[in-house]
Specification:
Helices cover 37% and strands 27% of the residues. Strands 5, 6, 7, 8, 9 and 10 form a 6-stranded antiparallel beta sheet that branches. It has a 4-stranded antiparallel beta sheet with strand order 1-4-2-3, covered by helices on one side. It has 231 residues and is of the alpha+beta class. The protein contains 8 helices and 10 strands. Bound molecules: adenosine-5'-diphosphate (ADP) and magnesium ion.
Length: 231
């Protein structure tokens, strides 16, 4: 059995439907979808140790099967720049969870490399009851949330279809580059779209997938958050 199927089976076997960010990103890595490097820790000493190994700045995030939207409960701290700040942020996250979601079961804290700012895009997948998994693409923030500037294709998609999706959102000119802002790596986004399509096609047990946001650069792209929900 492929490693990804084994992982999903283990999660279903223990009665869970929502993957932890660590699990979702592990699955992404299996499919060659670039994600920020991460380490799961369970105390502030190890958080500091891993932050040093990853290199500053880092991001700290709560890992809990009961918390889907981490920043809503104060579960994400970005731009952590020193060992002392890591320890302080670790405690701050724990306090925030105690305050906003005291009943949540806590697995640990994720220490991850902080991705530099880039153009933020979103890749997602939802299941159509009739046609199966569909792939979604759009630019992050107001483009998706306010303008609903997104596009869909039924999976599996080819590289040409992926490129078509990218070029048909209204915000496409922003990706192509304008004035002083450089063009984004469209090839890297295309690859992520095709690999995401492969991931959900080969795993029909996935109900929803959300890479939000993906930072896109002149060269390369990286998902900083990954959410996967099973049937
Ligand atoms: P959630 O969506 O569950 O609230 P995210 O993991 O998406 O949590 O984190 C919230 C925000 O923090 C992201 O939208 C992004 O702007 C920022 N962020 C999270 N992880 C990173 C990272 N590794 N590098 C840079 N920015 C990050
Ligand atoms: Mg997110």
């Amino acid at each position: 059995m492929p490693k990804s199927s084994q992982l999903l089976k283990e999660i279903l076997d223990c009665g869970r439907k929502t993957l932890l960010e660590t699990e979702a990103k592990t699955l992404c890595m299996e499919y060659d979808i670039p994600v920020t490097r991460f380490k799961l820790v369970k105390d502030e000493e190890n958080a500091a140790k891993q932050a040093e190994a990853l290199g500053f700045p880092v991001v700290l995030k709560i890992v809990s099967p009961d918390i889907v939207h981490k920043s809503d409960v104060g579960g994400v701290i970005v731009g952590v720049k020193s060992l002392n700040e890591v320890k302080k942020s670790y405690r701050e996250i724990m306090n925030n969870i105690m305050k906003h979601k005291p009943e949540a079961k806590i697995v640990g804290v994720l220490v991850q490399e902080m991705a530099p700012a880039g153009t933020e895009v979103i890749v997602g997948s939802i299941k159509d009851p009739q046609f199966g998994p569909a792939i979604m693409f759009g630019l992050g923030g107001v483009f998706v949330e306010v303008l609903k500037d997104v596009t869909f294709r039924i999976a599996p998609i080819t590289e040409d279809e992926a490129a078509e999706m990218i070029s048909e959102v209204k915000a496409y000119p922003l990706l192509k580059g304008y004035r002083n802002s450089p063009p984004a790596d469209l090839k890297a986004i295309t690859k992520i779209l095709v690999n995401t399509s492969r991931l959900v096609t080969e795993h029909p047990e996935i109900k929803e997938l959300d890479l939000n946001p993906i930072m896109v650069y002149e060269k390369g792209a990286k998902a900083v958050d990954a959410r996967i929900i099973l049937e």
